Amino acid sequence: MSAGVLGLVLLAAVFHAAWNIAAKRADGYGRVFVWAYGLAGALLLTAPAGWIIATTPGALSWPVVAAGIVTGALHVGYGLCLQTGYAKADLSIVYPVARGAGPVLTMAVAIAVLGERPGWLAVAGAAAIVGGIALLIARRPAGGARVGPGLVWGLATGAFIAAYTLFDGHAVNAWAPHPVVYLWLSGVVQALLLTPSALRRRELVAALVRLRGATVVLVGLLSSTAYLLVLVAMQRAPISLVAPLRETSVVIGLVLARLLFREQSLGARMAGGAVVVAGTALIALG
Asked: What's in the GO CC field (predicted)?
């Protein structure tokens, strides 16, 4: 993996951790919040996506539209599982489990189905990242924090992460060479699928805009930017390497969870974070 691609994925990890911290602060809004930040992301990408579509023949072909519909639906499932997890458990449980389950499934399918063959250093790095994440969640937080729901919803979120990572990695290499257009379509589909639900919850939408409007815009911006960087990286490096490397965001997320939400057991979990960083180094060497 080149230094440039490594930098893209690590920057995406920082943005990803930041938007998840913001999303945790909006954990009482559920699917309305998922609708709102999907819409915000789509609106922010409308101008650049429109320019690409207007100036590039085939940028909005039927295969691209079909792929956008699929990934939009997958991201709806991902967002709903994630926000449900944040409503029921600590971020320091949900986030590591989700980010850990995703690359395990992604790498396994990329190797078994897509025929990718990462080097042994990369495989060892992925294993180290998964082991580090296991350490991160091994110790139950003080104060009786809920672990079970966090594990369940974290695993469900991880399954969607694996699904959209594999699909999107193939899509941006086979059908959708312009990640901005592809990501814009995904946001549009996400917003459209959840609009009926938002219309039934107008009072909650109004409260969200009034109390967390800035959070919606921030999450829309950071989530779109983070995943755009990942899509570009997947055009330049194997999916089985990009997916585990994204999980360095876990370390950032844990530190912020302790500082902002006073979640417990930071010392024990940072030991697992060190293992995640070591795994990242192995992937870069692989």
From this structure: plasma membrane
Say what the pTM is. Answer: 0.87
The C-alpha R_g of the chain, in whole angstroms, comes to 18
In order along its 286 residues, the chain shows pLDDT tens digits of 788 999 999 999 999 999 999 999 888 899 999 999 999 999 999 999 999 999 999 899 999 999 999 999 999 999 999 999 999 888 878 888 888 777 777 777 878 887 878 788 878 888 887 887 777 666 655 554 556 788 899 989 999 998 998 899 999 999 989 999 999 999 999 999 999 999 999 999 999 999 999 999 999 999 999 999 999 999 999 887 887 788 778 878 877 777 777 666 666 667 777 787 787 777 767 6
